[in-house]
Structure formats: C-alpha cells, structure tokens
Amino acid sequence: MKYVLVSGGVVSGLGKGVMASSIGVVLKACGLRVTSIKIDPYLNTDAGTMSPFEHGEVFVLDDGGEVDLDLGNYERFLDVKLTRDNNITTGKIYQSVIDKERRGDYLGKTVQVVPHITDAIQEWIERVAMIPVDGKEGPADVCVIELGGTVGDIESMPFVEALRQLSYRVGPGNFCLVHVSLVPVVNVVGEQKTKPTQHSVRELRGLGLIPNILACRSTKPLEDNVKEKLSQFCHVPAESILTIYDVSNIWHIPLLLRDQKVHEAILKGLNLLGFAGNPELQEWTARAELQDKLSYPVRIAMVGKYTGLSDSYLSVLKALLHASVECSRKLMVEWVAATDLEDATAREDPDAFEAAWNVLKSADGILVPGGFGDRGVQGKILAAKYARENRIPYLGICLGMQIAVIEFSRSILGLHDANSTEFDPDTKNPCVIFMPEGSKTHMGGTMRLGSRRTYFHMADSVTAKLYGNVGYVDERHRHRYEVNPEMIDQLEQAGLSFVGKDESGKRMEIVELPGHPYFVGVQFHPEFKSRPGKPSAVFLGLIRAATNQPIFGMPHPSHNKIATRNSMSNGTAAPLKSFMNGKINGPLRTSLYSNGNGVHI
Description:
Elements: E1 2-8, H1 16-29, E2 34-40, H2 52-55, E3 59-60, E4 66-67, H3 70-78, E5 87-89, H4 90-103, H5 113-129, E6 142-147, H6 157-170, E7 175-182, E8 185-186, E9 191-192, H7 195-206, E10 213-218, H8 224-234, E11 241-245, H9 253-259, H10 262-269, H11 282-293, E12 297-304, H12 314-326, E13 330-337, H13 343-348, H14 350-362, E14 365-368, H15 377-389, E15 394-397, H16 399-411, E16 419-420, E17 430-434, E18 448-456, H17 462-466, E19 472-479, E20 481-483, H18 488-493, E21 497-501, E22 508-512, E23 519-522, H19 537-546, H20 576-580, E24 593-595, E25 598-600
Parallel strand pairs: 1-6, 1-7, 2-5, 2-6, 7-10, 10-11, 12-13, 12-14, 14-15, 15-23, 16-17
Antiparallel strand pairs: 3-4, 8-9, 13-25, 17-20, 18-19, 18-21, 21-22, 22-23, 24-25
C-alpha cells in the first residue's frame, strides 16, 4: 500500500479536505485506484452528536456511519463509497484501546500513548486502507490520509507520532507527505510572506515528518522568488512547491494540481512513475469550465435553521450545484432563516420579515432541508404552504418532508393542532411520530441511519420516473421521527400521495402532491449520493421544474435560451455535451460570493 498524507499548518480551514480529494482525483485519472481516510483529533466517537454550527454538516455513509463532512468531499470527487472506519477519531482509538485493556489483551502491560495508542492508529490505518471502496475487488493502490487540525495542536500529537512511525516503517518509497500551508499577503506591504510556512515546516520536521510537497494557499499564484525562498528554508525542491490560489470553483483544484504536475512529484515519491500514465481529466475539465460559463440563473430559496453557516448544508448545496450544472443553469442559493418567516419576527423585526418573504416569493424553487429541534418549524410550515398554494417547485428533505405533511394536515384536513411529537408531545393529531426502535436516552448512533431501500408503489409517480422506473431505490437515512402510518389513509384520501415506502409498507419514504408542478418530500437524504455528472434524481427534478424544463429526460435545446420564471440575465448556457464538443469558446469567469440576499455559486 502506498500512502499520501495531507497535513496542514499555520491556520485551520485552508482546504485540506478539498486538497486531499483533488489529489485523489488526479491519481485516479492516472489510472490508479484510490481510497481515503480522514483523521479527526477530537474526542467524540463520531460527528453524529455535534452541532452543525460547531462542525458543519454530519455526513452519512452507506453503513450508517456519521462522519466528518470531508468524507463527503472524498465520495463526491472520487465517486466511491467509504465506510465509518474511514473516519478515525481520538474517541474511536481510545475506546478500542480501553476495550482491549478491559479484556486483558495487553497481558498486564502498562497501557500508554506510546506504543499502544500509536500502534492502534497504525493498525487502523493499515486495515482500513485495504478495504475496497470503488466497487472492485482487492485493495486500492494509494490511500490518501488527511490529518485534521493544524500541526502543533496538542490533540493531534499521538496521530503525528503514529504517522511518523508509519512513514519510517513503510519506507520513503511508500509514503509521501503533502503539507498545506498559508502564504499571506500583508496589505500594507503587498508582499507574499513565507515566514508562517517556514515555522510550520520547522515544527513538522521537528516532529519527525519531512514534507515531500508544499501546497501553499494564497490569493494569487506564488512569485518565483517566494518559491525559491521557501525551497531554501523548507528543504523542498522548487518544482515540488505548489501554489493553490483562489479559483472560480473547486472543480478547478484538480486541474490546478495537474497543471503543476503534482502527479509526477507524488508518483516519483511513491516509486509509481512506470505504473501510471498522465491524468485523463477531459470530462472533469469540461464540467469545471461549463460551470464558469453558466449565466442564466436559477434561484432556490433554502429555508433552514442554520443559514448562518453554509457548511451546515454542504451536501445539499453540492447536490443543487450538480443538478444546476446538468440543467445548464447558474445556481443562486437564497438563504432564508425559517424564523424570519414567522409572525413573531413580523412584530419584532418587520424589515427582516419582509425581506425573508420577498426572497421566498421571488424564488424559482423552495427547498426545506433536514434538521432537529423546534426552532423555525412554523416558518418552514409557512414556506411549504406557500409553495403548495402558489405551485412553486418544492423539495422537502427528511424534516422538510414531515413539514409538508404537517402543513397539509393543518390546511387541507383542518387539523389545526396537527404536529410532530418532536415539537408537541401532547398533540391530539400526531401526523409525525417517534420511531419505535429509537432511543430517547442515548443520542449517538441511535437514529435510523445508513442506506435503506425504498419501494415505489406507483410506477407513474414523478419520483419513480426520475429514478428510472427501476422499482426501488437505495438512499441514506438519518432520522428519529417518521410519518404516522395511522394517518396515511386520511392524508391520501385528501390528495397527498405516498408513492415510496419501505419493505414493510408502513414507513413512508416519498410523498408527492399530484397536479402540482413539482411538490416532493423524501424521508431519506438524497444529497449524500449526488455526484458531479451524476446528480441526485430528486434534485434534478427540482431544478428542471424551477427552470421550466421537462422534468423527465434531457431538456430540449430551446430551453437553454429561456430564462427562469423570475430571473433574466444576459449570457450563454449550453449542455455539457455541446461544451465537451468544443462549441463554446471565450474567457472563463465566475465567482463565489456572499451578500445580503444569499450565497451565489
């Protein structure tokens, strides 16, 4: 097994996850099989109990693992299916060592960080690296490991020591270290400063890890004299110093690495130069450049609870992006804090109330994502009601589906106190209830998690057609509450249609509103399996409906010239196939920015 370790220095948040994913893309394009491991030094066993405000979204894997959002980047970039063991935490390592100690596996030894914790880390890495994740038999050729945090952090020290031992044991021809660091520009001077990177590399070398490649984050490409200075003081060849500057979209990062021949440096360090070819990234290049070219917008109102931190809904944003690019539209996500839609805000902050409703009413589509807790629930219900009554394309995910059922029960069935027992345990009309096998005493890992099968009960339903009329679909779940099966007949008689159910037929998985342009709720989380070039079916349906394109099949070429319902813009948009045939030329320019109305991608 060959290992590529990605570490970070100076500050956190430099994009080590995207860097690790992009290295994997380039190596995969060279013909190698790649797997990934993320190391998180926190004491939590997994990310399942962590607040999205604290750590971003919780990404869910097929096996039910609740893991760091970077594993979502790995899966999307590499198109693989990872396991819960591909995310290593301090909590998992210590728990495994303590369990062994309690069983007497150490035969009376004094259990210590070195060698027991460090040995457990190495054993975990070597075991997981051998698990195939690409659907093929046998282990991968290269394992890309991302070490979370920043070099020098106290909590990451055992992992650094373990990786030092691993690098020495497997030998230099099997281990390559890529260190991601910051090269800031001091505005007063306007000069790229190398000192932070010098100190970071000195710290790394003092811990016994020698970087083979430096990946320097900066707003602009590194100047030649800066590279020479870094090479001299960090003992890294100038050709192995990469400049990772700001780009228009993250799909350009693998191309940036390829253009700087990162594959040659890594393949040389891993003695693989004769076993791999040049990276074939034509389709990836076309998709990255197509996203830059798109100008006709599609505005999606994201009505949620954690709108102050976009990482809280990272996979949802990526799934929307995948679908928008597939439909040749520039995605514009308009954030709407659910609480701003409520009457209480109208009294306390009329301006915020009016602004939120203006955004909602101008949107081409409305999406209510998953979430926990009762804050903002009434606002989400109002958003679902507005979408239903005004025939605005709507997608509800997990809680968003339950919200749609609650709203329908109140407005159509006349059950004004209809609610979820999560928000009102004493409601007389519980249309959403706690799952029978759930736990109310333990939070971690007690939800309905991972890949579960949904069977379509109506072949002519919108979602069945979107999924290709295959009879069933496997999607990932993460929830404690579900639609009350005792109310299904009443809801369906009033007009709702539960078109997807589990194998027992008692768990509602997909709900639709017949006659509506697009009103879909899903209990699962389809965003976790969306990929660039392979968008999630229900997200694709939302974007197609929001842009007045045919929901089923490829859009007619004429639709590329039609602006969305509420948005007009100059520019050119074209399907990916035309772009790959070289029919579009010209400069590439776009941006990722935030303003008072939302994040524009």
